Amino acid sequence: MTPFKESSGNNLKELREKRGYSLQELGDMCGLSKAQLWQLEKPTANPTLKTAYAIAKILGVDITDIWPNTIKIVEEITVVRRVMRAS
After folding, report:
1. Would you say 84 and 59 are in contact if contact means Cβ atoms under 8 Å apart?
2. 53-86 pLDDT per residue, tens
3. What are the distances in angstroms from CA 15 to CA 39, 63, 64, 76?
4. pTM for the whole structure
5. H-helix or E-strand containing 30?
6. Under a CB-based contact definition with an 8 Å cutoff, are residues 7 and 65 in contact?
7. Residue 76 burial by CB count (10 A; 0-12/13-18/19+): exposed, middle or buried?
8. ω before 43 within 30° of 0 (cis)?
9. What is the Cα–Cα distance from 64 to 11, expressed in whole angstroms?
């Protein structure tokens, strides 16, 4: 299972419902279809970092509140970029 998928569906659905948003409403706000957002809640799909940040911003939480292991992904990207710049 990828870092995005670990427990993210439950977190995303819980936060969305706490804020009183339907799948359609949140999808409209972050530029996703209802079906795409539903897939993220299951989770049968992974969001891009841009989408993940947009959803977190709309819900008023940190990205790691929805996807707890996201920090690992961001750290890995940072390391790769540093190595590429050093080359």
Report:
1. no
2. 899 999 999 888 888 877 666 666 665 566 667 7
3. 15, 12, 12, 27
4. 0.72
5. helix 23-30
6. no
7. exposed
8. yes
9. 10
**In the chain, domain spans:** 8-86
CATH number of 8-86: 1.10.260.40
Q: 70-86 vs 49-59: helix axis angle to the nearest 10?
A: 140
- Which tokens go with 85? 């710049």
What pLDDT is attached to residue 65? 87
CB distance 11 to 67 below 8 Å: yes
As a whole number of angstroms, the distance between CA 69 and CA 52 comes to 12
d(CA 13, CA 21) in angstroms, rounded, equals 10
Q: What is the pLDDT of residue 83?
A: 65
